[in-house]
Amino acid sequence: MSAFAAVTTGKGIGAIAVIQLFGDSAEIIIKKIFEPVGKKPLVFKTGEILLGTINTGSETIDQVTLGCEGPGHFAINCHGNPLIVTDIMQLLQDNGAALLTTEEFLAKIFSAEKPSGQIALEAKLALLQAKTIQGTKIIVKQINAGLTKTIEKWLRDINTISLEQIKTGAEQILEDSKIAKLLILGCKIALAGPPNTGKSTLLNFLAGRQKSIVTDIKGTTRDWVSVQCIIGPLHAELIDTAGLDEAFGDTIEKASQQKAFEILDEANLVLLVLDNSQPCNQLDNHLLEKITDKKILTILNKTDLPAKFDINKLPENLTNTVQISAKSGAGIEELLEKIQQACGVVNFDLKTAICFTPRQEKLLKQLKNTRSNQQALSMITELVKGPA
Ligand SMILES: Nc1nc2c(ncn2[C@@H]2O[C@H](COP(=O)(O)OP(=O)(O)OP(=O)(O)O)[C@@H](O)[C@H]2O)c(=O)[nH]1
Ligand SMILES: [Mg+2]
Prior knowledge:
By secondary structure, this protein is of the alpha/beta class. It has two domains: 109 residues, Gyrase A, domain 2 (2-Layer Sandwich); 272 residues, 3-Layer(aba) Sandwich (Rossmann fold), CATH 3.40.50. Helix content is 40%, strand content 20%. The protein has 13 helices and 13 strands. Strands 3-4-5-6-2-1-7 form a seven-stranded mixed β-sheet, sandwiched between helices. It has a six-stranded mixed β-sheet with strand order 9-10-8-11-12-13, with helices on both faces. A hairpin with a 2-residue loop joins strand 5 and strand 6. The radius of gyration is 27 Å and the shape is flat. Bound molecules: guanosine-5'-triphosphate (GTP) and magnesium ion. Magnesium ion binds next to helix 8.
């Protein structure tokens, strides 16, 4: 006999909070702690809502409505004061319920609903984490199309398809998943470059408010500053960093530059902001070395001033450029387009087969390196059914 409980509304103060209880012994627990108004005999019918109180035996904790969600599944709608919620959770635990996080709880409910396979179950859970509507759509498409369809085809054709085809297919899914991940979980975009090029001005323009301090003194930004913004289908965290220049020297500047490099390491895309009104020698070698492996979009800023920058002198990996004036907003539309292109999300087909959990990713990586059809078959089966 077991029961599981979780708070399924958001954390913090609210008018109401919902605590859900599920499992073989859920009904027994509810009978112990819930008293209906009017002391009617307790009969639970799926879909019914009862008004009553939650009691410890010696005292009443709260007046609640109790939703009968299904056999052994209840929703206690209590008042949203976190202290009341904690007391009810404690009472449920004292009566034998295991306390779970929302995700853990939903995983139990979804598995009990017997979804049409492991991928459908994982999709339901992954939907909770998606940052954009586009992201939720991609996940939903994996249930009846996308990943599921590809796997079903592999299984159907397992005797005729070559191992090479399966391996290439797995590789393609892993590649496409990198783009889908940006759409589902959001992306980090770092603004980097030499001091005084207009990184903070650009961040403020994109944020629509004065989030970062702007001055004409080199080294104004020290600590990093970030804002969340929507760029087409992307949920992006834009991060302004300290200007990078080897000539700089005090301890604080070194620390802020170190932090800037750490941010660059984690970024999905680097916006390298250069000053179009200054000559090319502003490019710092140390910075160039640090971003060799990154996706880079080079921004030539301050186009409202006379140009001194020779675009032809840019190294090969920096030639994806866009010209803007962060001060006037000229070129910003093109910049937003180019960010989406650089992230590969323009016209991304939502039905593309992708993986969206670490379990799926691990199995696809194994599949990519598999050496026999037999091994491939067991990996594909595990992918669709979950661990044996
Ligand atoms: N004319 C012109 N000036 C700009 C533009 N963008 C920024 N500036 C000016 O350039 C100076 C530096 O701007 P910031 O945004 O602080 O530059 P930064 O790259 O963040 O500088 P650090 O934090 O020192 O690395 C300020 O005086 C801005 O007003 C632009 O598009 N045109
Ligand atoms: Mg700055």
